[in-house]
Design a protein that fits this description.
Layout lengths: L2 H21 L9 E8 L16 E8 L4 E8 L5 E5 L13 E4 L1 E8 L6 E2 L1 H8 L11 E4 L2 E2 L22 E3 L8 E10 L5 E5 L2 E2 L2 E11 L8 E16 L5 E12 L1 E3 L5 E2 L7 E10 L16 E8 L6 E6 L1 H7 L2 E3 L5 E4 L3 E5 L4 E3 L4 E4 L9 E2 L9
Parallel strand pairs: 1-12, 14-24, 14-25
Antiparallel strand pairs: 1-5, 2-3, 2-6, 3-4, 6-11, 7-8, 8-15, 9-10, 11-13, 14-19, 15-16, 15-20, 16-23, 17-18, 17-19, 20-21, 21-27, 22-23, 25-26
Length: 388
């Protein structure tokens, strides 16, 4: 045997074995983690004349594409400091941090806001906590959490409310003043041993800011009166949106009850007086969109606006409703996909303008000035309840 050859090859064999063991080492024993930073540029929230509400916090989901591994982080929307929510390293910094350690590799990064009282995140939660390779980002949806009207968790409910558009599930209301939905993604990015990287998200608004307005004509020639407050319920709000493509599911809709305000010709908020005969009534909502009724003649289902008007020194409110088929079509809020099951939002802000005036005296909804029967207010007061 050639002992000199053995002495020559033995160090090489040891070197090859050592290299192989390093490459195949289990990440669970000593994973290679790289410090990274994340921040948010909110240009998409303020790039038009409407300044949209920015959430206090954002979640960042980091998914490694090869050798699947995920972690979830919650960050302050402006300071970009926060903490781990899922798959944190063993050695955690005390309190909040701006640096987060990811395992090396190629990643897809997702950013979205979260409010568990307003939305359901089952798709995202299941995606985070499972290693199912069949689950893709394109399968992730966010949907509104729905409530029955008598649920104590539902904000903004009022006495005397009676629903004359009771369609679908009894748990069909979403919260008023709901948080806008923001989302952004960055892919693919390589996390390696280079200098500390800061990945900047520019969250896009998935929901729509919609101004719903109508005019009230007060018949004060006999008895002057003051309108104290106006509440409206709007139906036809889609419940679900896909994060990846922004497709809105229009097969199931819900409702929202919200308080309105009055504006003068300059847009300034005002209060009613005895002398007013015309009032411009506004309500602003942030929702996925509002879909219209199947036609202009129906009086229940999606695309219906109910109103309840409280007159000062009068115990019972004045009630009515109107079909929004034409106002929604004029607003051009969305476009349906070919299958009719989804909608694509046209714009971030829209106005549903009801052209028919709502005419009332101190006791009742008197009439509507559009007698065509299409865009017409209908009384739903106790003396004139329409069976739907």
């Amino acid at each position: 045997m050639n002992h000199s050859a053995i002495r020559y090859f033995l160090p090489l064999v040891v070197l090859l074995v050592a290299c192989t063991q390093t490459e195949l080492c289990e990440e669970t024993e000593h994973p290679h983690r790289i410090s990274t930073m994340f921040s948010f540029n909110w240009v998409n929230a303020t790039s038009d004349e409407y300044v949209h509400t920015v959430p206090d916090t954002m979640n960042v989901l980091a998914k490694r594409i090869v050798g699947t591994w995920k972690c979830l982080i919650q960050l302050d929307s402006y300071k970009a400091e926060g903490y781990y929510l899922w798959n944190a390293p063993e050695e955690l910094p005390e309190g909040k941090t701006t640096e987060f350690r990811l395992r090396s590799g190629i990643y897809k990064l997702l950013a979205f806001n979260r409010d568990d009282k307003e939305f359901i995140y089952d798709d995202i939660d299941n995606y985070i906590r499972t290693d199912d390779g069949d689950k893709q980002v394109s399968d992730l949806n966010i949907e509104y959490k729905r409530y029955s009207y008598d649920d104590p968790e539902l904000r903004g409910t009022i006495s005397y409310w009676k629903d004359y558009n009771n369609y679908g599930s009894s748990a069909n209301y979403i919260q008023p003043d709901i948080t806008p939905i923001y989302y952004d993604s960055i892919t693919p990015i390589r996390v390696d041993d280079q200098d500390l990287s800061n990945y900047v998200f520019k969250p896009n608004l998935l929901s729509q800011n919609i101004d719903v307005k109508f005019h009230i004509h007060k018949k004060v020639d006999v008895v002057p009166f003051i309108i104290d407050s106006v509440y409206t319920e709007i139906s036809g709000i889609p419940c679900r949106v896909n994060l990846a493509n922004g497709y809105i599911d229009v097969t199931e809709t819900c409702k929202m009850l919200y308080k309105n305000h009055f504006r003068d010709a300059t847009g300034k908020r005002i209060k009613d007086t005895n002398k007013n005969t015309e009032l411009e009534c506004h309500g602003t909502i942030d929702v996925l969109s509002v879909v219209n009724a199947p036609d202009e003649k129906v009086t229940y289902g999606p695309g219906i606006l109910q109103v309840m008007i409280f007159v000062k020194n009068r115990s019972m409110p004045i009630r009515g409703k109107v079909n929004l088929y034409y106002p929604i079509r004029r607003a051009n809020l969305y476009e349906l996909t070919e299958d009719g099951l989804h909608a694509i939002r046209h714009k971030r802000h829209g106005t549903i303008d009801i052209e028919a005036n709502l005419i009332i005296d101190e006791n009742f909804l008197v009439t509507s000035d559009d007698e065509s029967g299409f865009e017409r207010w209908i009384s739903t007061d106790e003396t004139d309840v329409i069976d739907i």
